Amino acid sequence: MTTLVFGHKSPDTDSTGSPIIWAWYLNEIKGEAAKPALLGEPNTEAAFMLEHWSLDKPEIIDGVAADQPVVIVDTNNPAELPAGINDADIRAIIDHHKLVGGLETKGPIDIRIEPLACTATLMYKMIGSELGRAPDGVKGAMLSCILSDTLEFRSPTTTDEDKAVAHALADELGVDIPAFAEKMFAAKSDVSAFSDAALLRMDSKEYGVGDTKFRVSVLETTSPGTVLDRKESLMDTMGPVATEDGVDQVLLFVVDILNEEATLLVPNDLVKSVAEKSFGVDVSGDTVVLPGVVSRKKQIIPALKV
Amino acid sequence: MTTLVFGHKSPDTDSTGSPIIWAWYLNEIKGEAAKPALLGEPNTEAAFMLEHWSLDKPEIIDGVAADQPVVIVDTNNPAELPAGINDADIRAIIDHHKLVGGLETKGPIDIRIEPLACTATLMYKMIGSELGRAPDGVKGAMLSCILSDTLEFRSPTTTDEDKAVAHALADELGVDIPAFAEKMFAAKSDVSAFSDAALLRMDSKEYGVGDTKFRVSVLETTSPGTVLDRKESLMDTMGPVATEDGVDQVLLFVVDILNEEATLLVPNDLVKSVAEKSFGVDVSGDTVVLPGVVSRKKQIIPALKV
Question: Which stretches make up the DHHA2 domain (chains A, B) (predicted)?
């Protein structure tokens, strides 16, 4: 049976590219039938990656059958995976996030998690010299994933390994990193086609502080004004989205990639208090700028206080 | 702060040797202060390994402080670890068991799990050429762990990698594998110093089938008669041990390493029924021989039916 390789729901570039990379490796190097899949529409940056490197868009699936062989990449969180994931035949997990607990496997399997910025960097290490046999599209996907997850090396999650791998790939592919990253980030910043609710859910993770459950949303963009122009309707939509998703509050951080700062929308006193306690800022209006903040994993989640 | 490296409770050879190997690697190769530890008295085979290779017995600890840096080896099961493990600063997990779910980490960490017979085999791969700098004791611990976990390559958990690593180490150390394994297994078989309750708990894992909770105990020995001579008092002790440990029934499999078979003690109708349904045997007396059965992971747990 063909193994399905997929990342998390709301696929970003890493969760779209890494399944393509690993399915290539399983098929062409390991001789095991495998197919990349997506758990939803890829975001605009991921779509740009597919287009730029002439990669087929993986099939979007909305569940996995019991005993379906799967490889999970870029997450180990059951909440970000199909409901029946523990009944699937999980063959391997390749990830760079903290261990959440909740995934179970029927027998011993291959699990590799490292504190890198990007799943694709770990795959580069795991594939080793066999990567020489990969088509440009696979290497291009790898480079795209790393530039996306590191915000072109600006994110504090970036490691020396992520950087070295990206530069090696760019050299081999003849890619000018700043020019290519600019195109990727422009694609990510084009959010005109998305509804307010879609924007609030696009890149978000649930996170609890004490008894308060947040949906912590991050929009990485080179054009923060485009998003902030919609702040009133975004804030009006937070209540309904929170209710529908069973959380207390949506927090939307608009991350300005180029200026390395985040703007948090402040729709009410709860968020005002969270902003002041978590980031030591004074909030007056309905937005507050957080200088230097670009990473949910390293800078937002660890700081959150209610 | 010095990192503590430890395996599971009721330490066997792999859970005693692997912490020694990895603490050496962290100290001498990675330049990070580390110390092996044990979560209980090592079993008699593990004690033989320490003696044979002139290794210091690691300190026995009965808990870990919050924020204590730790590396967990040879398990990922919180039930086999100190109660406060999720409050420790878990730096890495190196294991060869199925993912149980339940361990959580505060941030992304190094996790490496592979379906090998032995943690030490995985460490051999991870350490790579730096192992050349290890003292004989570290290499000897590695070899001992592999021979123990594979029952000298008899267990169906044995992979080609486990075998190749063991042979490479034996060649380098000038160890005659059959002669050395015989000594190890003789040490493991010397259970005269242990009470019946201690024997029932020595190498056991809890496992539920439907609503029935078992303590599945395995005693690997080259001298099954020594254990079976005590079968009456062992069976008398199963009730109190089960009650004290909060399970419904203790199952004791006496594994004859050399003849590659297990003898299951049958104290009551529940175990008789389990034996017949799980292994397709007819049970008449208070024991039943299961030809070819040596591995709890591969042959006992997957077969269990109530």
Answer: 181-304
Half-sphere exposure for B195 (CA within 13 Å, toward CB): 7
Instruction: For each of the domains in chain A, give its residue range(s) and CATH number, in order of start.
Output: 3-187 (3.90.1640.10), 196-303 (3.10.310.20)
Note whether A98 contacts B115, CB cutoff 8 Å.
Answer: no
User: Which chain A residues in 76-105 lie under 8 Å from chain B, judged by CB atoms?
Assistant: 90, 93, 96-105
Contact list, A297 vs chain B (CB under 8 Å): 107-108
β-pairing, A261-265 vs B34-38, is: unpaired
Q: Reduced to 3 DSSP states, what percent helix, strand and coil does chain B have, rounded to the nearest 5?
A: 45, 20, 35
How many C-beta atoms lie closer than 10 Å to residue A246's C-beta? 9
**In sequence order, which ranges of chain B are alpha helices (DSSP H)?**
13-24, 44-52, 119-127, 136-150, 160-173, 177-189, 196-202, 224-228, 231-245, 269-279
- Is residue B111 within 8 angstroms of chain A, CB to CB? yes
pLDDT of residue B101: 87
**Are the beta carbons of B34 and B91 closer than 8 angstroms?**
no
B296: contact with A, CB 8 A cutoff: no
Nearest residue, CB atoms, B115 vs list A101, A110, A112: A110
Question: By the 8 A CB rule, do A306 and A274 touch?
Answer: yes
Question: Which residue from B104, B115, B297 is facing A99, i.e. has the nearest CB?
Answer: B104
Q: Which residues on A lie below 8 Å from B112 (Cβ)?
A: 111-113
Q: What is the pTM of this model?
A: 0.89
A109 in contact with B, Cβ within 8 Å: yes
Strand partners, B163: none
| Model ipTM value | 0.84
- Give me the helix-helix angle, B44-52 and B136-150, nearest 10°: 150
A115 reaches B (C-beta below 8 A): yes
- DSSP 3-state assignment of A194? coil
- Segment 161-190 of chain B within 8 Å of chain A by CB: none
From B111, B199, B183, select the one nearest B143 (Cα to Cα).
B183
Top residue of A90, A99, A296 to mutate, by most chain B CBs within 10 Å, is A99
A99 contacts B105? CB cut-off 8 A: yes
CA A53 to chain CA mean position, Å: 19
DSSP state of B58: P
Percentages helix, strand, coil for chain A (3-state, rounded to 5) are 45, 20, 35
Q: What is the pLDDT along chain B (306 residues), one digit of tens a residue?
A: 999 999 999 999 999 999 999 999 999 999 999 999 999 999 999 999 999 999 999 999 999 999 999 999 999 999 999 999 999 999 999 999 999 988 999 888 999 999 999 999 999 999 999 999 999 999 999 999 999 999 999 999 999 999 999 999 999 999 999 999 999 999 999 998 899 999 999 999 989 999 999 999 999 999 999 999 999 999 999 999 999 999 999 999 999 999 999 999 999 999 999 999 999 999 999 999 999 999 998 999 999 999
Q: Do B106 and A98 touch (CB under 8 A)?
A: yes
Chain A residues inside the 8 Å CB shell of B99: 90, 93, 103-105, 109, 111
CB atoms within 10 A of CB A83: 11
